[in-house]
Each structure stands twice: as C-alpha cells, then as structure tokens.
Amino acid sequence: MKNILDLSRSELEKEMTGMSAKKFNAAQIMEWVYIKHAEAFEVMTNLPVSLRETLKKYFVIERPTVEKKLVSSGKDTIKYLLKCSDGVLIESVLMKHIDRHTICLSSQAGCAYGCAMCATGSMGFKRNLSAAEITGQVFAALPDMDSGEYSGKFNVVFMGMGEPLANYDNFKKAALMLTEKKAFGISTKRITVSTCGVVPGIENMIRDGLRFNLSVSLHAVNDRVRDMLVPVNKKYRLEKLLTACAKYFAFNGDPVTFEYVMIKNVNDREDDLHELIAIISDIKIDCKVNLIPYNRINIKEFSASTSATIDLWRETLEKEGVICSIRREMGADINAACGQLAGGGF
Ligand code: SF4
Q1: Is the same domain home to 52 and 113?
Q2: Which of 111, 226, 294 to mutate to test the pocket of ligand 1 (most atoms within 8 A of CB)?
Q3: What's the 113 CA to ligand 1 centre distance in angstroms?
Q4: Pairing of strands 213-217, 125-128
Q5: Could you tell me if 178 and 145 lie in one domain?
Q6: For position 107, which CATH number holds?
Q7: What is the pTM of this model?
Q8: How many angstroms separate the alpha carbon of residue 42 from the centre of ligand 1?
Q9: Residue 40 is part of a domain; what is its CATH number?
Q10: Is 91 labeled as catalytic in the residue annotation?
C-alpha cells in the first residue's frame, strides 16, 4: 500500500491516469488530505464511489501520531514527540511569535553528521524520514496555531533532527508539498533550509530550481576548528562550502544566513571575529550572521560565550556593515532549543 502523503502532485496525477480516473481527481484528493485533513477515503464525497473503493485497495493516508507534547514555561514553544508507523520516534517544534508561527521540522530520525554542539548528532543515525513523515509534522502542529487558519501564515525551518540535504529527495518532495497550492500553499520565502554544509545538496537545489532561504551552520572560520565542530567539513572544506553559498546566492538572490553557535574559547576569540569579517567581505554576497548562544547538551565540555562577548561580536559585525542578530532561544526549558532535539524532556 502506498501512502498518499508520499506522492507529489504529479505522481498522484499519474496514479489517477493509471487507474482510468481523471487528472483533476488528484487535486480533489489533495484538497481533502491537506486542507480538509481527511483521514479516510470514504469522506471524499466528490469522488466517484468506484474511485474511492479503488483508492482504499491501494493507498493509505498515514501520518506520524503525536505521542507527547511539551509546552515551554512561556507557552511560546511546543515540542512534539511523534511516532512513525514503524515505531521510530521523531521530534518537531512549534515556535509561536506574535505575528507568525514557525515550525521546525525534522528530516531524519537521528543524524549521521555528529556536529559537536548538537544532541541529535550524538544519537547516531536511524533512518531517513519519508516525505509523509516530514509533512506529517506540520499536521501535528496545526491545531496549536492560535488562528486555526494556517494557509500562508506559518514559516517552516528544516532545522530539526537530521540533515535535510542528506535526505534530498524526500526533503524536496515535502518542501514542494508545502508550497503546493492544493496542499499547504505557503510561499517559498517562508521556507528555510538549514545545512551543516552538504555542498552537493546546495548544488542540487540550484539544479532543481528550489529557491528557499539558505541557512548554513558555519560555526567556525577555519578548517581546523570547523573539522572539530562540524565534521562534514573534512569532506566539504570551508572554501568549497563558501563557493556553493555564493553560487546559491547568485541563483536565488536572497541573503544567505550563516549560523554561528558561540562557544567560549573555542570559536569566540577576537581572531575568529576578524576572520569572519574577512570571509564575508571576500565572498561578496548578501548575507546575515545569526549568533546563537550555546545550549548546554551535557555531552561536550563546552560552555557558552559570555553575553558581553556575543554583544561585542554583534556590534563589531554591524559596524562592518554585516546584518547580524542574536538568536532568542525559545524552549530551552523543554530541550526544544537549537541543538537540543534528542528525546530530552519527554
Ligand atoms: S546540527 Fe544538524 S547536521 Fe549537525 S548533527 Fe545536529 S542534526 Fe545533524
């Protein structure tokens, strides 16, 4: 049995043609599944009875189920523990801002990349998530959005468990479903793809015409420190990564965001700051720097940079004309902040 949520619009249209149904039936089914949240084919009353019967024979409508929810003390962050059909557990996070909601999606169960500041990396890799398991996380969060109206009103960041560009095909299918009018219908501008530096994935997005916001976990300004913090750097060196970022900017035109987790005496020295400014000036693209206070994950002996250091970095970067923000960490009390997704708190 195929899961309807694993099919792109064109794949569903092909299935319809193969069953001697009409191409437009695919759009009707998508509307039922993604907009009306139908969980069974019986309720799809605008489809011929015979088609509903055939669909029941060959397809299922299956999403991960919500096992547990944790709400932060400020009530602005909700972490979801979701169970896939094979029992694998994944996490996603809803962050509620005054003017928007942001859903942080996982693309893999666990992660093979082992970034030093990340709890998910320490779990090891279990498996890739299917497109249905990725978009299924959005369904889980929808009831917790105050407006109850989701169309066009939420942002998505692929920053949860796993590396989205290492699960490229399913990430792509899920991301396209987010922008598909008959599904979630959000603008490509509302989608951010965060990568630890999987260069071929960035090149694939250019090849496939995927214009999303690109966010790169930079975290260090030289290969020596980056090899330690973000081990994928041993395969795709900093220079290669920066070249890929420049190509993506040339293709997309939107600023690339460099994420930088601030770790005391590891990557927050004055030399690092000056090197970062030099790198940004050399690549000549529009970019932003997002400084992230390190969240302790009880795995590494790292400690967070002082707020004075973080403020100094921001002031210096801004003086140099670099757009810079300090990430307001949400949900740290429920282990839902950056780098903390690994079953903690549940
Ligand atoms: S930061 Fe991302 S890529 Fe690195 S280990 Fe964590 S989940 Fe994987």
Answers
A1: no
A2: 111
A3: 6
A4: unpaired
A5: yes
A6: 3.20.20.70
A7: 0.93
A8: 41
A9: 1.10.150.530
A10: yes
The answer to whether 324 is a known catalytic residue is: no
Given a cut of 80, is residue 264 above it in pLDDT?
Answer: yes
Question: Of the residues 90, 91, 120, 290, which should be mutated to test ligand 1's pocket, given the most ligand atoms within 8 Å of the CB?
Answer: 120
CB distance 231 to ligand 1 below 6 Å: no
Q: Please tell me if the CB atom of residue 118 comes closer than 6 angstroms to any atom of ligand 1.
A: yes
User: How many domains does the chain fold into?
Assistant: 2
Q: Residue 254 pLDDT more than 60?
A: yes
176 shares its domain with 134: yes
The boundaries of the domain holding residue 278 are: 65-334
Distance CA 145, CA 163 (A): 26
285 and 234 both lie in a single domain: yes
Separation of alpha carbons 238 and 222, rounded Å:
7
Share of the chain above pLDDT 70, in %: 95
Q: Is residue 42 domain-shared with residue 175, that is, in the same domain? A: no
Tens-place pLDDT, residues 198-209: 999 999 999 999
Distance 105 CA to ligand 1 centre (A): 13
